[in-house]
Amino acid sequence: MKYEFIRTHEQQFSVQRMCRVLEVQRSGYYAWKRRPPSRRTQANAELLEKVRQVFRYSRSTYGSVRIQQYFRRQGYQYSRHRIARLMKLNHLVPVRVLKWHPCTTQQRLGARTAPNVLNQDFQAVRPNEKWVGDTTYIDTAEGWLYLATLLDLYSRRVVGWAMSEENNAHLVECAWQMAVCNRQPPAQLLHHSDRGSQYTSESYLKRLEQAGCTLSMSRTGNCYDNAVVESFYATLKGECAVSQFTTRAEARSSIFEFIEVWYNRERLHSSLGYCSPVEFELSSGH
Q: Domain 130-283: what homologous superfamily?
């Protein structure tokens, strides 16, 4: 392993210095280097190339666990520790998702609210049983861009989303309309949100009541009542909106691609047995 380290870092440090620090002889290193690669070395080189391909495919977001799961889905059985060692030696460091920092929502004075029916039960037995919604802000050089989403708790799929320069009731109504068009949810769908002014507006509540939804809202000051969608936003900002976008148009394009191409259809979710949301729904027969 010492010789392998020296060969990997020859372009960064002098061989003489590395040999001195690692307490090996230069002659021994050069003799090792002249030898034909062992079968194990060749196998590691082949695996490393596969790991690099999956790492690029994941947009530099997969660590050793998800890469191992990706290989298993392809019928390959590789040790996670072996993958992790190769990644460490070759500086394949995944993007670190931002830790979710909970925040509370200001309730509009006099707003019509609903009890917390969901009560942090984030499991669902079928699609369109429980939806959770929330809004967030995206930083651009032109100003904030606001994003509203609705997630289906059965598959963690983003079923509706909308973006706007205004964080208002119209924004969440657009996300709701997309979700309804995509999913045609049945009556008694459980709709959960916080008590923000967008979700307690009369226009939005009227839409939910007309659809026959069961309304649920987070308790005042309890930021964990909507943890799943908050976790999604942490993933979005850790893997897509990692820095300020130049324009709102650039942000719209990147977020669309992240949600519809990557997150819903490709990204492996640990909570779904390392399936994507779309794949999870298809495999379950729904």
A: Ribonuclease H-like superfamily/Ribonuclease H (3.30.420.10)
pLDDT bucket at 97, cuts 50 / 70 / 90: low
Q: How far apart are alpha carbons 231 and 217 in whole angstroms?
A: 17
- DSSP three-state, residue 242: coil
Q: Which is more confidently placed, 199 or 104?
A: 199
**What's the rounded Cα separation, in Å, for the pair 162 and 135?**
9
3-class secondary structure, 134: strand
For 3, half-sphere exposure in the C-beta direction (CA atoms, 13 angstrom radius) is: 13
User: What is the domain partition of the chain in residue ranges?
Assistant: 2-89, 130-283
Q: Is the pLDDT of residue 116 over 90?
A: yes
